[in-house]
């Protein structure tokens, strides 16, 4: 049986305000007090893992050790089939040190066009997220989630962050960049279903570590 989270204070191991906002939206029913690693002045550890799970674990353990509090981290990215899975684990690095995701999305489009991938069928993609909840004593619990769809051009919408404007999830007419938070995550805690990769991973983690949420969402 996985370890349960006690108390309400939880560090989110990120310096990305968009990612912190998403965790606050997803975890709102649990009434947790979330604080970003950046707000605590914690350094960003070097992400030396070879998988999303590796990097999520590195970040969560570093934040939990430094803060003395439980810490939640994710590592996530976009896999594009025609690009042999790129940008994949390097999704954030494609945006560079300035977090230029407009430039990263433009690169995805250039590379797809260079390979002749111009039809919806040739632009299959998936968002993948790995989560890790770590305690200061080093214990961890992990979960993953994925959502499939396609890359659209040009990117659509100004909501969300990262590659959201170019990702159209299967069965939907709007990109993640066009959806509000409730639509993007699509969480029904009662039925344990969600739309976004991060929501699906969080549902799996919550089932193992968190008490039941308060009220429907």
Strand line-up of the largest beta sheet: 2-1-3-4-5-6
Mean pLDDT: 93
Order of helices and strands: EHEHEHHEEEHH
Q: What is the CATH top level name?
A: Alpha Beta
Please state the structural category.
alpha/beta
By CATH, the topology is Maf protein
Helix count equals 6
What are the low-pLDDT stretches, counting only 5+ consecutive residues below 50? none
Helix content: 25-40%
Largest sheet: 6 strands, mixed
What is the number of domains? 1
Oligomer: single chain
Fraction of residues in β-strands: 15-25%
What is the CATH architecture assignment? Alpha-Beta Complex
Report the end-to-end length measured between terminal Cα atoms: 26 Å
Give an overview in words.
- The protein is α/β, with parallel strands linked by helices and 217 residues long.
- The protein has one domain: Maf protein (Alpha-Beta Complex).
- The chain contains six helices and six strands, in the order E-H-E-H-E-H-H-E-E-E-H-H.
- A six-stranded mixed beta sheet has the order 2-1-3-4-5-6.
- Strand 1, helix 1 and strand 2 form a beta-alpha-beta unit.
- The two termini are 26 Å apart.
- The model has no long low-confidence stretch (mean pLDDT 93).
